Amino acid sequence: GQMLEESGGGSVQAGGSLRLACEASGLIGPEFSMAWFRQAPGKMRERVATVDTGGIVTYGYFVRGRFTLSRDTTKNSLILQMNRLRSDDTARYYCAAREGPAAFLPAEDYPYWGQGIQVTVST
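Given the sequence above, the corresponding structure tokens read:
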């Protein structure tokens, strides 16, 4: 089965909100950092938000207070609440995990990935 499975994507109008969830298998525990990345067509995969093993949350520069990342260690899940969505937030969003600290690490440093989920924001 999947180690990471995303849910909650979909279509929304600009200014709206979406909540993405990532369920992690039992193999991924508190010693793992977890993150959301996104990739739009023709663009590189970019980091949206990370929570590392110390519980510190960091965000990509473009978030600018619009998104909130939270981790529920009892349910082994990662939640990304996205508010004030813009058309340039349209992308496929991926949940990722790696063992150890990760605050600003890029995509290539994460060995575990979900399949991704589409987010489409229309004007």
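The mean pLDDT is 95. Try to locate this feature in the token string yourself.
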